[in-house]
Amino acid sequence: MMRIHGGKVFDPANGVDGQVRDIFVRDGHIVAGDPREPADEHIDASGCIVMAGGIDLHSHIGGGKVNLARMLMPELQRSGFEPMGVAGPSIELPSCGGCAPGTLATGYRYAEMGYTAVFEPAMLASNARHAHLEMGDVPIVDHGAYVMLGNEETFLRMLTSGAPPEQLRDYVGLMVQATKALGVKVVNPGGISAFKFNQRKLDVDEPHVHWQVTPRRIVGALARAVHESGLAHPLHIHASNLGVAGNIESTLATISALEGLRGHLTHVQFHCYGNDGPKKFSSAALRLAEAVNANPNVSIDVGQIMFGQTVTASGDTMRQHANADLGSPRKWVGADIQCDAGCGVVPFRYREQSYVNALQWAIGLEIFLLVRDPWRVVLTTDHPNGAPFTSYPHLIRLLMDKPFRDEQLARLHPEVAAQSALRDIRRELTLGEIAILTRAAPARLLGLTDRGHLGVGAAADIAVYQAQGDAESQFSRPAWVLKDGVAVVRDGRVIAAPAGGIHFARTQFDAGIAQALDEADGDYMRGHLRAAAIGEDELCACCNGARLLPWACTAQGV
Amino acid sequence: MSAAARPSPIDAQSVRAHWTCPFCALLCDDLATAHSDPAAASSNPCPRSKASLSRLAAAPAAAPALIDGQSAPLDAALDAAAQRLASWSQPLLAGLATDIAGARAVFRLAARTGAICDHMDGAGLMHGLRALQDRGQFIATLAELRSRAELVVCIGTSAVERFPLFFRRIGIGQPGSPCQRVVFLGSVPPAGMPANPVVDVVPGSGDLCADLQQLNALAAQQWLGQTDAALRQLAEHLREARYAVLVWEAAALPAEGALIVEAINRLVGTLNRSTRAATLGLGGSDGGHSVNQTLTWLSGLPLRTRVAHDGLQHEPHRFDTTRLLAQGAIDGMVWISSFDPQRTPPPSALPLVVLAPPAMAPLVRAQACVFIPVATPGLNAAGHLFRTDGPVVVPVFAMRDDALNGVAKVLDGITRRLERSA
């Protein structure tokens, strides 16, 4: 048994808020300890903060577009003219950093921040094997993915032809099972497909030029099918009109399209713009926060931007094509994929002196600070789209430290610095709230009952941070990180790199749906039917023998 | 990264109904049907597939490893390979015709030895990669072509020489095909194109780069002096098509082919401002795309990279096998060719470790090298391969068990020996 003693524990799922507690670990799990029982391993956590391992529910860590981003930007993978080496003696295999790091570096850097699970939000069904192979090469952290639905011709054809809800539910169940996903995401509902038919814009109540369905119908149908499939994570929604001034209307319309069903709006910062003011670009954070506060069925993650070079990787071909001219450096990759989806990769440099970028930065922070219920907000930068995930400690400090935030705000484009509502928001998040945003809330939103908390029976994914210095330095360099009870990080450096586990859902559905789809899809998909299922043994091989972490779903009545 | 990847299980019943041919990056899965031996399948319409199978069938019954031409037990060959690798100051891992599990093992060995990694088709693969690195690209996949492409333009290639069933795969001439026109620019149409759609030939000037420059200007409706009538016509068709796909082929491009790919990518960029268009690159057979993708995700950098603890160094020009050999920049080479026993290592006086199907053994027996026989993914081993168009990874299955190790297992055996002796 291992005893972590003397630390201030922040475990909001179990109502623990900074009390000094000992944590006991045996066989990879947290157990009820008896302080008198001798422990064979001790971690002295006095003067430390103890939290469950961090969970990132939206980070592009694996799959085709991430790899395209790496190929597009080899200049990110060196330091000036020199190669980036592994610093000092290390167990690490060589893997580059930057904003589109190799999978190995991805796992190392997440673990070094105290994160123990990361979820790829945009797995294309036709790219699912690739995504799993790639995520399987992210060491240490557990992973999982949401399959992208809502732009594939199979689904759009079903919706157009009036398929009944039970058929849509079976279809969603099949796709989750076949691709070994944990959840379902929709990206620019219908818009990726519409772009293939040369439609350049698609509002929530505007019909797809070919299939004639609206984003509202797509969102409504998918949210219902996800609910009826019994998936724990609600429909994960990248709403219409990403990045467009005035898109708050689309975002609010998307919330109404849910008709009270649960939905998770992702990277809302990019969907939270008004068109007021002299530049016709303004913050709509207050309107969004009011809507989130008023609709308990809605959860969000923010997609905070940070200043500097990054690369944006998205399934939203329509919007990425529109944004490509703003890219820096000016190059981009797009793809129309398998009558299924698409992808767009645009390098981006967010600048403090850009009015738009500075406002985006302020909007993200406003959202974090204006939404009242921390259990429905998750800390993300939409890695790498808003910023690389390695900026989380800096982001945490911005949320916890008002004077620091003001200092940063003062450096920005003068009009934003002078006018932003952020100046008047006094709230500073507490350590307990940070533990919710980075661990407890994402675990609950994903239905991971044994993660994100430190109660008896939970997996021993634990981060121990030195409680000294500012929040940024605290969260940058944990003293210890345990993954399933094994020490993987010591003093901010990786000391072991086991394969992470893979979370996926086991759905129930009428098996007849598979054959019906194969027959309907045959003409398009000659060879390699998109739904060719990934078996659990194949999944294990893809993931380097990783532990399979299935979550059983019970289909609901329609 | 910990344990070596476990091979996918072989489910003989389900597999035999769906043989997926691994011998070009189209990865067709409808060539042989239930219970057939692909080698014997007279119904196989693909000459490349049939030729590949017959080359592999020329294997000797027993397939021992060789150390400098002498038969040796596998363990002894692995020991010898590890000893030789340990003595090289700059190894090259070349050929790299393997699957994704093999590519993962290539990376582990490269990281252990500080090796440079290049593929046997590295020169062709770099054309597309360098154009992508410089300006980006917009691609479409096979199913998109089949369901959407009204106009297909094959640039500098007839496609079928190395990808014999390409037009079949994209449904040309089949019921429901949206394709109204196939154009061959600077290339010759293959025999046996269907009567429908229309086939146009634009011979061009013989200088593909110049023709594409002119086509780019025409598509952008820039004023030009005298232009080629056929190119003008093609530019008009491109602007009018609701969805056009420009097809190019890595292996058919001349030196500095990246300039041609870049011109094609630029043309698509122009067209996409008003209508829809995309490119499709043919290439990536012999595991080319599989290795390139896998190395990229693991390390952040693609092929032609030196993998070492003091840093990853990507040199698309310098780290070319031919060039490294000519310059004497390496002092030992591991050559991997698990699909084609006739793709032997390039001639050199360097010490060699060769991983290939047993049928290559007679071709290298006279050389000073360690030869270790390996299985072929999709024939006698399961595996995963990337298709030519990019996003799709296809599982391939073992049709029979020849008791051969996969590349991954052999390389991991060498890496473990190096770790033990470190």
Q: In the CATH classification, which architecture of the largest domain in chain B applies?
A: 3-Layer(aba) Sandwich
Give the strand content of chain B: 15-25%
Sum up the overall morphology of chain A in one term: globular
CATH third-tier fold name of the largest domain in chain B? Rossmann fold
- Share of helical residues of chain B: 25-40%
- Rg of chain B, rounded, reads 22 Å
Into which percent range does the helicity of residues of chain A fall?
A: 25-40%
Q: For this structure, what is the CATH class of the largest domain in chain B?
A: Alpha Beta
* Major pleated sheet of chain A: 9 strands, mixed
Number of strands of chain A: 26
Mean pLDDT of chain A: 95
* Regions with little confidence, pLDDT below 50 for 5+ residues of chain A: none
Biggest sheet of chain B, strands in spatial order? 2-1-15-14-13-3-4-11-12
Report the span from N to C terminus of chain B.
19 Å
Rg of chain A (C-alpha, Å): 22 Å
Number of beta strands of chain B: 17
Classification by helices and strands of chain A: alpha/beta
Q: Name the biggest interface.
A: A-B, 77 and 71 residues
